[in-house]
What does this fold into?
Amino acid sequence: MQETSKEVYKWIQKEESRKKILTVLKQPLTARQISKKTGIPAEICSYIVGDFVNRGILICLNPKAQNSRVYGLTESGIQCRKHCISDCTEYRSIDIDWSIYGWVCYNHRSTVLRMLAEPMQPTEVRRKIKKKLPQVKISDNNARDVIRLFFEKGIVQKVLVRKKAHPQYELTELGTKLQSLLIKAESPLSS
It folds into this structure.
């Protein structure tokens, strides 16, 4: 039996955590990203996201993924968000392969992607990570493997530099889109 919009609105209004989740959904996010943005513990957040999916508010955009499933608002979810949140910003749905975005959301992959601001060699990426994020443990081999996988998926491209033995890598258009989404998804909730 399908719930009416009024019933769904009431259900959302009952719990502050449900409203928080709707508030942070300005673009598709993983349950982990939602948890970080809202401060809701991961297990509880995943449970609520499942309820949102069952009620037709959210849809999984990469259903074949085992981990890092990406959730976006459905049409009724967008209407729900507009109704339940007073100063709601527009929801952004982006035309992108969400399975690749979910794949990029793993720890080392997302860290490497965020650091690629200019053409760099894998060792330069690792040094930048070590300097900016000393708590992240990544080796030269990890960075090289991630860059190789990015290259295979079309996220980065080689840049050959004269008098350099090894190529540098820069983001492709896809890589730039993924990086932008990732940075927005991981930015703190603005008040």
